[in-house]
Each structure stands twice: as structure tokens, then as C-alpha cells.
Fold this sequence. Notes:
By secondary structure, the chain is of the alpha+beta class. It has twelve helices and 15 strands. It has helices at about 15-25, 35-45, 50-60, 125-140, 155-160, 190-200, 215-225, 225-230, 255-265, 310-325, 340-350, 375-389, and strands at about 1-5, 10, 70-75, 80-90, 105-115, 145-150, 165-175, 180-190, 205-210, 270-275, 285-290, 295-305, 330-335, 355-365, 365-375. Helix 1 (about 15-25) runs antiparallel to helix 3 and helix 10 packs across helix 11 (about 340-350). The mean pLDDT is about 90.
Amino acid sequence: MQIPYLNILLRDMEERDIDDEIRWNTAETDWALWDAPWETLEDLKNFDPEKHRAEELEWLAKPKPDHRLSLELEANGVHIGSVSSYCLDENLDWKALKSEDDRKSQRWAVGIEICDSAYWSNGWGTCALTAYIRYHLSAGYTDLYTQTWSGNTRMIRLAEKLGFRECRRLPGVRQVRDGTYDALTFRLDRAAFARHRERLENGSLELCVPQTVADMSFRREMMEDPDTMAYNAGWAVSYPGYHPDTGCIDFPESAWEADFARLTRQGPGQFYAYLREKSTGTLIGEVSFHPGEGPWAELGVVLHAPYKGRGYGRAALELLARRAFEGQDLPALRNTFEPARAAALAIHKAVGFREVGRDTMDRFGKPQELLVLELTREEYWKRRKDRDN
């Protein structure tokens, strides 16, 4: 399993990770000063590298559960730690699960270990724990907690940033480096977490209008990629270069200049831009709107296939709506797509779009029902006001 999210990756453990774990438990052990040090520091004294390797290899050979309780963490291709979860009882203490327990109805505590100290800043922990919570919530594991101690101020700040609220404090039960600290439990406020996600995802992208004809090379890369263009396959349309079997569109360099002039002509009700990651400068998709057949503009959002499923779709739609209603003061935005595209529908509804009608168009030789979704200027500003309050 792999879960890409913004600039990090959560994935299943691999054999190559074992050497990192041994290093973190023998040489680079600063992380143990903060992650439950009353337990981990004692564990380090008794750590046996060869026994650990044998146990991990045995674990890797076993089948994995459908819902993962631990995943490894990568940043920029570097293995830096892991995320994990465990079950809590009614007193918010650790609980052993029984085979007959309904896992989704349990209380779950989530946690993170960034063992490579070079990654203790720049938001890696924020992205990683956000991705892991998002993974739990999407699977129906909704009663979420995190636990730490009052001396771990970085973890406390992270928990509060993500929307956790303190729900239990046990004074003076943690003895750490000659000091006495409280044991803390936080419960996730899901509405606060949703607001955090919106800020995080929207703030990770920016709009970038192509500046030269040569910039059309990225548009060709997307238009000629079957994974990116699969949504476009099979429609009853006819224009040069369209491949109905894949949805791809030929875009030779000889056509770039005319397309560049058309797309970058920013007139009333018309806009086109690439989506770019702020942190890396990587282009990850395109957004656009153009005049519709009524008092609205038709929108488009296309993510390059390698960047789908990371939370960028909603961020892209939010940026496009801001451009339409704050940049051009348009009366409304509309989009049309198939009801089966559940992820697209959820993203549009999260941004405030509502269904205003149905349409039909042939796809692969059969009538295909389409949803018509709309967000008006008034609805956008009301939502913006409610969110800011």
C-alpha cells in the first residue's frame, strides 16, 4: 500500500527499512528522548539488532490487514520514520483488540515517529499525520485520539494544529530526565481537522499562467498520457488528434503557438493556468474556465496522473473559485461529469457546489447521464464569510 499526500508518502514497510530501524535504535537515538521516553529509552538498552531483523522479516512475510495500523514515512524519497495507531478502552488506556471486536467502532490513538532528526521541521510531521488521519477517517475509523506527555511541546503543538482537543490529563505520572510531567490525551475535533486540511492543501499550491510557448510542453505531457486522460475517453466528439479509446489528444509542437495564444488570452469569463507545488516548483495539473451557454463559466480541473489522490483536487477547485469570484467577480461556475465519479462529486460539494440539473451525452456508444453542478457568486461569498467566522 502507498498513500501519497502533498510532499510525503505513507507506505507499507519494506525489507530495506530494517537497516534504518537498526540505526535509529543503536546510533541515531535522539527521537527516543521524546517518544514515550519512559519506555523507549529502556527498550534501547535491551535492543538486539539481529533479533530485531529476524522478527521484522517474519512480520514482513505475513499477510497484511485491509486497514493498516502502521505505515512507513518517506519525505523526498528518504525513509524518515513511521505512523501508527493503537486501540483505547473506555478509560482511554491501551486496549488489546479481540478478533470479534468491530474495529471501526473502537477508539483509536494515532501517533508519529520521525526518527531522522534532519526532518524535525519544515512541516513533514504535519503532512504525515494529516495523511494518516485522513486515511483512518476515509475507512470509517472516526473516533480518533493522540497521546503524549506535557514535556513534548512539539507534539502538543502538532496535535492542536491538526484539530485535536485535550480531553484527559493525568498529573505527575510521567518521570522524564529528572522531571515530573502530566500524561495527556487529545481527541480529534473532526470539524477543526477539516478546516486544517483545507488550509494545508490550499496553501500547498499556486496558479501559474504559462509564460512562453515552450511552457506548452507540460500540457502535451498530460494530454498524451492515458492515465491522466482516462476521464476523457469514449465521448461522442470529433476533432483532430482525439483518441476515443484512451481520451488522449495529440498535441504536436506545431500546434503550441496557437494554443498558447488562445489559452493565455485572459478575457472576461476566461482563465487558464497550471497548478504548481509551492515547495518544489513542480507542475501537477491545469485549471481553466471559459464562458458557458448561460450566465456562468464552465470550469475544468485536470490533475497529472502521478499527483491524483493527494488532496490536490479540492485545493485546485478552491483556487479556481477564488480566481473566478474574487479575481473576475463572475456570476457562477459550473461543471458537468458522470455520477460515478464519487471523488470528484465529494470535492465539488466540499467547495460548495450543488446539483442544478442533469444532462446526457453518448460515451462508448451509449447514453451517459451527467450531473450539472454549480456554485454562484453569492454562495461563494456566504461560504467564505461563514468559514472566516
